[in-house]
């Protein structure tokens, strides 16, 4: 029982990271209409952006979040201007393939600059906190708490602000949104800013939870897609639920099967979902 | 460089290109002709490679295999197993479109790689399978013999794919790619054709995998990472010209020239950067792919529509 609870705690941590990534993937998928394969590597960029702050200023990764966000947003907007905008008029799949190429460019760029070996934000052992038999690291509190704050902020943005409502409208029905006068290109740029910011935070959290490595984000890409699809594409709240479901399933599965298959659990759930109910739990759209 | 060294390099280069050319032809059936995005090339490549390796290598207590069967048996078995795997995966994913198929295939390919990584009894895990024999002849000239085998293999694959392209079958595939609903309305069983194309393409990928295992003589899960076994093949087909089989061959040569050219380039980097050399190469090929997509999305050789084989009745 203790083991199970402990794994659920780890699952919530993983789920927080996945949820932040999945919201971005889901928004990009529904507004820009393609599966953004470079999203995991955008998380990596964010994680290493945070490392710049940690290394230069000696601050904690949480304080370095703005640097991480700025870097990831800059990369996403550069990709939009150089790649995605010119390619938007060609076949939609060309966008997907170009994002696959960008994923490799970003990953190898990180490896060139930072080297292939894993890094950490902070060396040494953190004093874990004990709650009965359950152990929680302070970093885990930051990750879960930070995610909750961001989800709340996102909720307020989507439900209260003009841009948030416009974004939901575009995600629900692009044509209807366009004829009702929503500035489409502004919304596309805003989508990138939000998606990249969330990816950056997810990357920093992932770096705090484990270590930094050039393939850290790529490894998480499929679980992130799984979460987005599970929740229903275009449903930000679905992406959050999907993130926690996938995260908890991945961690709890290690009780029953070899931990080497942890990621395979996410893929299997993804494939299962695609077959049984491609629109996801929250009835997102199918492309 | 001495002449023998140069010849040796040419033999190695052409052998590698041949293996990639078969992968690109397989992808062309799926993507170029049918419009199916398979980002799980590595999975079928791995299934073919492991099948051939297990059947033809010498006995090893650490994993199954050691049957020491002849090369041709291994090749045929590799094609059959990858076809069966493709049939199962295809039957599951046949209703998925575009992005969803892409995500599903890459997920499945990763599951396959994890399986080979974790199932020690089957594949010796991360340590891989070694001592896979060269086809027909082991010895000093085995490289040349292998090249001959590889070139014949490319010729067979090219013949099959080109024949399929000009046949009515290929026409249905292109019709599905261009307008699925109209094809369905014309009375074609779209699911069936999609599945056939998926299995055909994947069988070629398994074939290439078997050749790869015999060429390198050693396989481990690392070789089936998406970067090496999937991304480069996509770059090759897109650069060469998707839909065009000659383009697939040309793309394999061009991209591999760039890839191995960068190897020479990064060899000049200081020694402490040597580990980053492969990153620099992936970066360069990635940039190249983006430039091709932006400037010439139809590739070097654009698709040609085949002439109708059957004459219209007068």
Automatic annotation (TrEMBL), chain A:
UniProt keyword Nucleotidyltransferase present: no
Alphabetized GO MF terms: L-isoleucine transmembrane transporter activity; L-leucine transmembrane transporter activity; L-phenylalanine transmembrane transporter activity; L-valine transmembrane transporter activity
GO BP, one annotated term: L-isoleucine import across plasma membrane
Compartments, record wording: Cell membrane
Protein keywords: Amino-acid transport, Cell inner membrane, Cell membrane, Membrane, Transmembrane, Transmembrane helix, Transport
Primary localization class, coarse: membrane
Topology relative to the membrane: Multi-pass membrane protein
The protein's name: Branched-chain amino acid transport system permease protein/neutral amino acid transport system permease protein
Automatic annotation (TrEMBL), chain B:
Keyword Cell division: no
UniProt topology in membrane: Multi-pass membrane protein
Record-level Gene Ontology MF annotations: branched-chain amino acid transmembrane transporter activity
Pfam families: BPD_transp_2 (PF02653)
Gene Ontology cellular component annotations, sorted alphabetically: plasma membrane
Subcellular location, record wording: Cell membrane
Stretches that traverse the bilayer: 6-27, 39-59, 71-93, 100-116, 143-161, 197-217, 223-241, 248-267, 273-295
Keywords: Cell membrane, Membrane, Transmembrane, Transmembrane helix
Cell membrane is among the record's keywords: yes
Main subcellular localisation: membrane
InterPro entries assigned: ABC_transp_permease, LivM-like
Full protein name: Branched-chain amino acid transport system permease protein
Source organism (scientific name): Amorphus orientalis
